Amino acid sequence: MPLQDPAQGSVFPSLSSSSWSRTQRRASLPAAMDLELNFEISRTAEFILNRNFTRVALQFPDDLLKHSTKVVTCLRNKLGSGNKVGLFVMADTTFGSCCVDEVGASHIGADCVIHYGHTCLSPTSTLPAFCVFGKASISIPLCVEKLSSYFGTNGKPIVVLYGLEYAHAISHIKEALVEAMPKTKLELIFADVMCSSINPLEDHRKSNGLGYLGSCSSVNSLGAATGTRCSLGGLIWDLLEGRRVEDYLLLWIGPDNSAFSNVVLTFNGCEIVRYDATEDQLVTDVSQQKRILKRRYYLVERAKDANMVGILVGTLGVAGYLHMIHQMKELIMLAGKKAYTLVMGRPNPAKLANFPECDVFIYISCAQTALLDSKEFLAPVITPFEAMLAFSRGSQWTGTYVMEFRDLISSSQLEVSKQPEEARFSFLKGGYVEDFELQENGDGDNDGTLALANATEKALQLRNRDPDSLVKGIAKSGAEFFVTRSYHGLETQANSSSPEPYLIGRSGKASGYKDEKNEPETL
């Protein structure tokens, strides 16, 4: 007779209980193997055991949180029952999910963080981290077919960049491309993953013992990559001697996401194509992405006319964020503007609408979450690099775009001059603008009483209709802003000392007052 599962109530073929359990184990084996490979259970356990961590935080993004219990079970089995390692699952990060959530890990006293999913590989401040990129599916034969046909029509040297979730397949794609184009002398460079673990005490650009995932060299001349070294978004590659990055065609393997936007903006002078592994399409038109540069330049012009600036803290873990906050405060102060520091987690239009006194916001975060541009925001949100362009007098945009704020910490190219400058032309106001004088933004304005006393005088601004006229830029504080937007009620006539004479009102009913004539109604 067939056996019936009492829990499911379904009928199965006639098998003994031991045979049925063996069949179930064989059926679940591929799923368990896929889970162990995709989440790199063995390498994660090796990382934990080699460094003797006892409290480990597992950070999952929202789309991978459903696998957290299975990952914990597999990781616990791999660590062994004798190791007393505490595993804690973290979800709903304070800021972007691509960064290591050191704030959440500190709440449980974790020794390290295991980060799963998409990551920006930004260096941490206090805790070491191990990143599991995952293994996104990609058809290598279809990818090689698309790329080889396109490379045959393009004679430029090529640099292959990719999303970190495709790092597991890059070596196979490289070998297949070499076999598909054996007679070509195409200069082809594949980027390497910088590292898979981050130690805040060491240089994150160095190998951490786990080794680089491959090597960075050209296909036709191995070991000849002795030129410029480039790095972006966790990838690193070497250009040949005498070459510039603008001389190369950049190929991106991956989706159109924040990592790809980072590539387009940083290397805006390069020709860029993208291979979409999900749709198996080679996208050669990325003009939509390059339009972002025009939008960012417009936001820089709006920031130049700002009086009050809000500094949005978008990370509490990326190394160097405190230094950048102080640097932005000094930059804003020297530009004669008011600065307010705001920490609110993930910014959204509703949160920023609570600060209408801020004309512009500077968002300090990792490179892949730095661009916040939506029509719902009442005030523009710019990056630290754009702030240095806007608030540094005499600075001009040369086409170089910097997304990593850590590259600006030691930069000495953009400096604020403390000497009086000539009036500048405002494209938005259509006239010349004289910025607020530096000495008026000293410590004396910190007194709230003085700010309120001078609010009425500073709130009034006279302007000529002539577009070439000089517009006086006024720097306001938060107190002055609220005074100008407050309702004061009915204004009294200060010059009139005599009281108004009283008047006798009307008497009677509303249907007919006494002073109204009684006229007969006509039908």
Question: Which helices and strands appear, and what pairs or packs with what?
Answer:
Layout: H1 17-38, H2 41-50, E1 55-59, H3 68-79, E2 86-90, H4 102-107, E3 112-116, E4 129-132, H5 140-151, E5 158-162, H6 167-180, E6 188-190, E7 192-193, E8 197-198, E9 229-232, E10 235-238, E11 249-253, H7 258-266, E12 271-276, E13 281-283, H8 287-304, E14 308-313, H9 321-334, E15 338-342, H10 349-352, E16 360-364, E17 381-382, H11 384-391, H12 406-409, E18 424-426, E19 431-434, H13 448-453, H14 455-459, E20 470-472, H15 478-484, E21 508-509, E22 512-513
Parallel strand pairs: 1-2, 1-3, 3-4, 5-6, 5-11, 11-12, 14-15, 14-16, 16-17, 19-20
Antiparallel strand pairs: 4-8, 7-10, 9-10, 12-13, 18-19, 21-22
Kindly list the characteristics that best describe this protein.
22 strands; 3 domains; five-stranded mixed beta sheet; 523 residues; single chain; 15 helices; alpha/beta
Descriptive account of the structure:
- This protein folds into 3 domains: 33-132, Rossmann fold (3-Layer(aba) Sandwich); 140-285, no CATH class; 290-482, Rossmann fold (3-Layer(aba) Sandwich).
- 29% of the residues lie in helices and 16% in strands.
- It contains 15 helices and 22 strands.
- The N and C termini lie far apart (100 Å).
User: How are the strands ordered across the major sheet?
Assistant: 2-1-3-4-8
Question: What integer is the average pLDDT?
Answer: 75
Q: What would you say the CATH architecture of the largest domain is?
A: 3-Layer(aba) Sandwich
- The total beta strand count reads 22
Q: List the domain count as a whole number.
A: 3
